[in-house]
Fold each of these.
Amino acid sequence: MLAPRLIMMIGLSFDVEPDFPPYYNTNRGLEGLKKVCEILLKHKADATFFICADFLEKNPGLLDYVKKFEIACHGFRHIDLRKLGDMQLEGEILEAVEIFEEFGLTPRGFRAPYAGVDSRVLTVLSKYFEYDSSLLFYQKKPEDADIKEVPIYTGGKTFGINPKLFNRTLDFPIENKVYFIHPWEYGGLDFKLIESKRKKMKLLGYSQENYLKNLETILKEKPVRLSEMI
Ligand SMILES: [Zn+2]
């Protein structure tokens, strides 16, 4: 008898932030954001956009690109929240929430910059958000954190690898697969600068052309926004 086929759900998420943190602090990746949003609309695909609040404040026009999708929070500044003291941590999150409110937005989800959370950060987040998506799928959520978790599967630079290798990520036997993407890897930046920091990725066929091919592979799987995976 055949084993029952695993029902798989694919979540697609984008981290909207300054270019290639911490190496750069420019906003040229907005071009990549526009591009990925157009591709999503063309494929009638859904996704969640985790946006840094200070990036949003400086580039409010980006809301025109992402308005058809779920808007979530990627912190205020793109900094490691685990390194902040209690007061600073609370202030950083509150600042982000207030900026979203100014735009009439109440994000349900949060992803920490550098996906850096611990039980203290998650406890603060639980006051403001319904779910977090910062842990990796193999990480255990701290028991005292009273917030739903939609863990990350893979993404980022993985979207640049050889498509044959990338396709294998779909075969891994976990039910829910959350992919994440950085729009700045899709345009605006001189890609040579990114490649120079990722020399080892060459062994996996890493190139900018692969990003579009691998995104299209995921779009064929009918991805959902992360709030549908809670
Ligand atoms: Zn980020």
Amino acid sequence: MITLLGKAISRSARCLWALEETGIAYEHKPVDYTKGEAKTAEFTAINPGAKIPALTDGEVTMFESLAINLYVAQTYGKGSLWPDDAAGQAQCLQWTLFSATEAEPPGSARLVQFIFKTEETRSQQVIDDAAERSKAPLNTLETTLQSQPYLAGDAFTVADLNVACSIEYLVRTNFDLSPWPMVQDWIARCMDRPAFQAMTAIKQKEAA
Ligand SMILES: N[C@@H](CCC(=O)N[C@@H](CS)C(=O)NCC(=O)O)C(=O)O
């Protein structure tokens, strides 16, 4: 059975979302890095960097949230999260690296300010700089979504999931997406999915 290691309120959330999309049975171990639980010998045998999330599936062990989602999609989401055709699969790889290198860095810079900082320690300059750096990836997404409903074509795939989890950081930090109406519509459709809602419920239960 697949096991996802990592508390839900973290980048593990995006992997919970992917697992929920597939509908497969999985186990969730909410390893909490803030309590040193990612530094155990058992965990660092999977990720020597002691960061969550990580995944085990039989003899497969791995870390890096977006790579985990590609594995989950390829293994358990054929024909849905993972397209059948080579062109669609190429789009999933492309958009996943776009998320990691273009969309997530400014998104997470903003999120860190909003979540981990107090009124006193929050830096408006970091928030504004991250907003500025978000514009180029948003322009790229807007152009793509003007001609197709989802990033790899007509249907929701792991390409959407892996980018949406970065753009969602902008939503959560009150970034005004109205200059990018296609992105605004697309992220609302992504966040409206039952699997996203299921992941949100897991986070809410963890926070309670
Ligand atoms: N690029 C990694 C980042 C993983 C990461 O930074 N995880 C955070 C939680 S969201 C963590 O475990 N931090 C522990 C630490 O920095 O000590 C991924 O996407 O999985």
Amino acid sequence: MDARDLTVDPEVPHHVFRHVVGHLASGVTVVTTADGSQNFGMTASSVTSLSAEPPMMLACLNRSAPTSLAVSSSGVFGVNILGHGHEHLAQQFAAPSDDKFRGVSLTPGVLGVPLLSDALAYLECRVVEQVTGGTHTIFLGKVVHASAHEGEPLAYFRGGFGRFQFGRDDAVYQVARQRVLERQYGVGEVMIMDDLAQDLDADKASVFYALTRLTTDGLVQRDPDRGYVVVPFDAKNSDEAFDARSAIELGVIDLTIGNAHAEDLVEMRKRFEAMAQLLVGDRFVDFDKYMDANYAFHESVIALARNRALSASFGRLSLRSVMSRSFGATPVTSQEFIRVQRDLADALEAGDAASARTAVLDYTKLAKKRVREILTEAGGLL
Ligand SMILES: Cc1cc2nc3c(=O)[nH]c(=O)nc-3n(C[C@H](O)[C@H](O)[C@H](O)COP(=O)(O)O)c2cc1C
């Protein structure tokens, strides 16, 4: 549905409202309070700052939620702003339970509200007014204590959690990444934060972000004595990444063969075709696009399992870096890659587990072999 065509007059249907308002990206908090000896907490994104003088917050909580009733009676609440990596806390505090705080480390606040020790930031508020709006109570609270740590926030957009990123940070990351891929740094060379900041005319926080992300990509590693060192890329790195993907894909075949969802198979085929047309003869039409398309195809194969843990494991493999650093060094490849991946797509559609397994193993063998050839041409190390 095209969001621009949605009719908003005279009354917006519930599902339309949810869809449209989901485009308003927000942070995620856990609102906490204590009533007597019992702690209460609930995930809330309808929380915002209200005024600076006096410092005030507002929180919109469903009237029927136990936490909302507890805030009404205690007259105090804590706003715990969640950081990146706290999805589990957001989920835990969004599900009704008698034991919402299980496994959660707490710090007592000055107003007696339980604060989540790991939160990115928190504010403690005393309720000065409460107003009813639809199904919710809007609590207006005066902030009496607030504290924040360094870190990234957890973001919420269209019903999903994600990460917030400064545009300037991404630009610095892209340039630093390109420099590593183009081998402007020697293997084992240290990337010095101050030099990079000066060279790229960037602030240190952006350079720190870039180096941290390059570490996640597997392109650099943090050495406690030397700093951020460019990781040598060798056959072992390559074999490990391809073998790990192969293990995940074989697992997906076991889980899904014969019962994959039709729409997921359609998506996989679409991504396969998009990838296949980017390899003409033995040359990539556009290497970066091919790499993205290849990643997207394998992502869709793994998505057949509809298992978030498996998809996340795939996302953590440094496959993009393995591919950039090997195939990126020489644009020559072979149609054989497309053929075995087509075999995989065909077998998954046909529900043929044996052929799908053979295709995954063949493709892995082929990729590992080609990277080894490229490495040999480059003298063993890239
Ligand atoms: C990301 C996210 C944001 C939410 N934001 C709100 C909110 O702002 N207000 C609200 O009343 N419920 C919100 N909820 C739903 C509550 O967290 C959920 O109903 C919870 O179970 C209520 O807890 P309680 O009934 O145990 O107090 C949100 C849930 C999620 C996952």
Amino acid sequence: MKKLALAVSILCLTATGVAAADDPIAVRKAIMQANAASAGLAGAMLKREIDYNPVIARAAILTLAASAKTFGDYFPDGSNDGDTTAAPAIWENAEGFQAALDKYVSDTAAAVEAAGKDGPADLPAFQAAIGPVFGNCKSCHETFRIQKN
Ligand code: HEC
């Protein structure tokens, strides 16, 4: 019985993996949602709604950096069609989109560097490290995301 249960759970895992790989729109939205959650957490600390904690600050920065590295992999041809707000400009201006991705990767990498092993020491250090990352959200969305009201 144990073996069967294991086999079933492995099957389920595989099925989930395949479904995710088959649905790039769902994957890239999930990445953006993790992005938004980290940005929200960072914002709450910067606005002093929650206490500053360097470990949490570093986790938020690392999540943003990981998302920046993977996000661009989920825009295959044809994935402009579906339940998505990805703008046609992503495919029509692929070079421009790549440039926006590259900037996001380098700005988040700089934040990781600034955060160091223990996270930014205090709130001003955190603000200095993550501030440049936030500009990317707006500038990329303006050009490469359909604005829905
Ligand atoms: C390089 C471009 C780019 C950057 C940088 C970027 N985004 Fe996005 N974002 C997109 C695109 C494209 C979509 C639309 C994805 C889709 O619907 O397929 C999106 C969608 C979203 C969504 C909606 C996800 C959903 O479930 O529909 C949120 C929330 C979001 N982004 C937040 C952020 C935040 C916060 C940042 C900055 C920390 C950020 N984004 C940075 C391109 C970007």
